[in-house]
Design brief:
The protein is α/β, with parallel strands linked by helices and 1177 residues long. It is 59% helix and 11% strand. It has 41 helices and 21 strands. The strands form five sheets. A six-stranded mixed β-sheet has the order 5-6-7-3-8-9, with helices on both faces. The two termini are 62 Å apart. This is ABC-type glutathione-S-conjugate transporter.
Length: 1177
Amino acid sequence: MSKAQSQDILVLEEKQPKRKKKGDKGDSDPRKDFPRGWLVKTLCKTFWQNLLLSVAFKLVHDGLVFVSPQLLKLLIAFVSDEESFAWQGYLYAILLFLTALIQSLCLQQYFSLCFQLGINVRASLIAAIYKKVGMALATRKESTVGETVNLMSADAQRFMDTANFVHQLWSSPLQIILSIVFLWRELGPSVLAGIAVIVLLIPINGFLVRNMKNKDERMKTMNEILNGIKILKLFAWEPSFEKRVNEVRARELKDLVNFSYLQSISIFLFTCVSLASFAVYVLVDENNILDAQKAFTAISLFNVLRFPMAMLPMVLSSLVQVSLKKGQGVQGDLMIPLPKPTHKAQVCDGATFAWEQDGNAVIRDVTLDIAPGSLVAVVGAVGSGKSSLVSAMLGEMENIKGHVNIQGSLAYVPQQAWIQNATLKDNILFGSELDETRYRQVIKACALLPDLELLPAGDQTEIGEKGINLSGGQKQRVSLARAVYSNADIYVLDDPLSAVDAHVGKYLFEHVLGPKGLLQKKTRILVTHSISFLPQVDNIVVLVAGAVSEHGSYSTLLANRGAFAQFLNLYGSQEEDASEKNTTGTGNTTGLQQLEGPCICLGVVKTLGPDPSVKFSMYLRYLHAVGLWYSFWVAMGYVGQYVAFVGTNLWLSAWTDDAQHYLNQTYPTEQRDLRIGVFGALGVSQALFLLFATILSARGAMRASRVMHQQLLSNILRVPMSFFDTTPTGRIVNRFAKDIFTIDETIPMSFRSWLSCFMAIISTLLMISLATPFFALVIIPLSIFYYFVLRFYVSTSRQLRRLDSVTRSPIYSHFGETVSGLSVIRAFGHQERFLQQNESTMDINQKSVYAWIVSNRWLAIRLEFVGSLVVFFSALLAVISKGTLEGGIVGLSVSSALNHCRVQPLLMLLCPQAPWVTEKRPPHGWPSKGEIQFVDYKVRYRPELELVLQGITCNIGSTEKVGVVGRTGAGKSSLTNCLFRVLEAAGGTIIIDEVDIATIGLHDLRQNLTIIPQDPVLFSGTLRMNLDPFDQYTDEEVWKALELAHLKTYVQDLPEGLLHLVSEAGENLSVGQRQLVCLARALLRKAKILILDEATAAVDLETDHLIQTTIRSEFADCTVLTIAHRLHTIMDSNRVMVLQAGRIVEYDSPEELLKKHGVFSAMAKDAGITNTETTVL
């Protein structure tokens, strides 16, 4: 995409209309502030050269279209006139050939230019959507990721398709007017009968506007499913979400099939056009005798008329769709100006902020003055507005009053680490130049050196999407390293120490954040729940309900004896003890074991595969999805239509020869009626066969769409987690956006076109051969040429289509990644770099799209050349056979040859699955005791990787509380994954209450266990749906769970209560509140076995205390496994399991283990724990 072009479309300033139009009554719609129609104007300004050149080619082509019927008329006259000279006939044949050839060349040049315009428009729009929706604050709140991915895939594609045919807007009316003029010359006013039928089509085409709302909703839900797939699997919630998607899909398909029915009716009506005209012509006046010249010239003209008449409504309806989209989203969204990154000072002056301009204030009257180089801690309970204050400082919230003034550059570490799909080194450098010394310094300070030794390729290891192959602690340290390396003036840190172990947190504070750390001279604003660091900070800001309740130094606040001092007295001593002594290694472990195998490198080659051909079984699979009976009857319908078509033309040919027989006589009425009757019957049967075939194919295509989407969705929900770990989300989204669009719309159309083209070619060759038998000799060499061209084209085109699909996925992946890390990108001021990266990703895709377009034109030129030769030989043989042929036969032969057409190939894909429910069901009420036995259990992440659990054998008794500890990579999180069969056994068994879990269905297992995961994942929908998607529990039970999770008062204060809408990924709740919602889920399910995976990292001490108390009381009669990253949380367990390199090295009560002087006591000693009474509770 050229620089000028991208500037022209992207840098659009916000313009307010200068004056209101007459009759404009106020500003009911905020969108009215935007100038209307700027998008089309901008596109015209940018691509005017392309537009003008294509207009020139189209004009030449349209002119030549009307030359062929006139030449045909002259040729029929030449054959009918015995006294004409032979050279005239040869001249007409050559002229017909040249006309067809020039017409073909002009048309292909025109199409080539149009398709270039289309891909340029698509690229410009995707870049503009990325820039505005991705980078502008206001737009992001209006559009969900699903809607935007849809804008970028289906809607940008629609703009592209419209751009391809935009010239039909003037070309179609021009061709229609010229056709009517020429037809009037042939048939006089009778032509109005045919025109009347065509006019009937216009209102039908008006209804062909499609509803895109359902598609947006389906893509939004799919996006959420893919982002929260692990939670869906752990809770066995797939059926609920599958049902949600299928309901939306059913509505989408209903629109689709109505659209297809209307299309069928319009095709049916069009088939009756020539029938109506000829019947009226003959019936109006008995002197009107239909001769060959009139009939076949008229048929050629009706054939010319067919294309613009079919195209005009299609272009108009796609324009309506595009303008609807433009009104709904694209145009408005693209107009919103980009916020200027104003990196401003550290002063808040009576600032009040809300998430929306007219929303409730979340941060109220905050006045802060932060001195340069100071370390300020922000503390407060869950939901008190700490993260909101950070967002306000970064300019992510709407400023209602007051101002924030920040001087200097910013670096930001979010609460949930954002990791790019790139190498570890690229994640830390984040676009900055490499300074080796500083880089080493930062890695050491952020405790990443031990991790680099574990990673297969050191800092060159490619990190999967969303940091899939790093543990939570490692992600957080990489995120911190990125900020430290950027060497900014001001550091905003949103609780970065919660995801790491306490002793690592202490190390990071000392070496990075604290008074002696790397950032000692920088301004640091640290949100934290950790009390132990507070004595070392310069200033503490205490937030309560979005307002500053007190601020000052640690000693000042203690002396004030306010709420903060009471809180400190309650928790301070315990926390200090615990944090001095806390442990478990260098970070937390989710998924780290994958790192011991080769790194996940996601490349293009993986998808292309070795075999470029589409197997016949793929086509059969599609036909099976359509239904074999449907397929058979659709084919029969088309055969019937073309049999009637050949019959109609042969009958017409015989009818026109009557003009010779009754040259100077009155045309008998009964003969006329017979001719009209049979012609009418054949014409109507042709139209009915076509209607039958198109309606059946619409139903069949809808069935195929439903079946294939169902299979795809069902497979995606059933594949193991390892599939999601190694497949970029963008690639899966592409399957559901672009490929489903292909199955819904492109394949049925291609299938119908292919069938009708195939039948048309057969019938055309048949008719020409009937007229001039010698033509059969010409068919053979032409067919051989045709076959080789097609064979060469199909394999090339197929690979180019695959390349297009493979290079398209990274566009969506990159977009999804940008949206999730937007606050980081904006804080660092890297918008420009991401825009450029988006453009280069798009350019790679454009290359394959452009190559595909050119290959299509290559094919079209050659196939149309074959068509031109068919016209030439049929005319030439007619001239040679002069005297033996009737004018009607010549007309039939050449007019058939003039009406030829082109073909296109198609293809498809899908994947494997595991059963949710098997024949063997566990007994009712299982597990009743909650006993777990591991018997020589081994597991690996993928077949080619090393074992991560190397033969674990242990028994966990009923209602026992077991803590699981170990250093990073010991296999703690793998153990929980095995219980839920997220990882399948490589050997050995797990037995729960005498049932081998490998023998029962996944849902029977997962519905009877409960986990409170490390990353709290919520879905868009109501709060109640997030707790109970199947509506299995009463409202009382839900409120009880919320009360126990300490969320009841918060939810009661919400206007909608349980029906409060949670935004995408739960963004309108704080991370701590999301964690409490996950606790409420577990309380609601109340399974006999509970697994806690570092469930309280993101909450403050008070809430942590409440959660631990709730778990102790509510799950007293359950078996509880706690994966501990902080030793103090498991010191009161019945037993502690110590893992090392995938093996159990110690397993006993904490008291016994401390006496033994083994691994656990060494870890405890590191942390300073000497007896089991040292616990936070």
